[in-house]
Amino acid sequence: xxxxxxxxxxxxxxEHEWINDExxxxxxxxxxxxxxxGEVVFVDLPDVGSEVTAGEPCGELESTxxxxxxxxxxxxxxxxxxxxxxDDPAIINTDPYGQGxxxxxxxxxxGELLSAQEYAERFDAEITG
Length: 129
Hints:
By secondary structure, this protein is α+β, with helices and mostly antiparallel strands.
């Protein structure tokens, strides 16, 4: 099986979430996670305005295989959620680093994040773009 892609410009949690360095920061799940989950059929995201805490569950992904918690990679306030993935969760599988993003956060504190290299080595992934 080919290695799953990891984007070089992102940082990662050990629980398979990615985050960018924009403000507010965009959060999603990795291709490694979507490959393990299978077809995502339902998404439960945190409410806009709610506080999320680094390393703590803040939502769920339900697939044809399992239900998996979404862990926030940072602490902060949720600024927006991606309504497109709520309406069509399959976007998370087809474009996890693009249109399949989950929510944005006004970051007050970063959690324990891995570089693309560290994440790729830990989960046998391949760094791209």
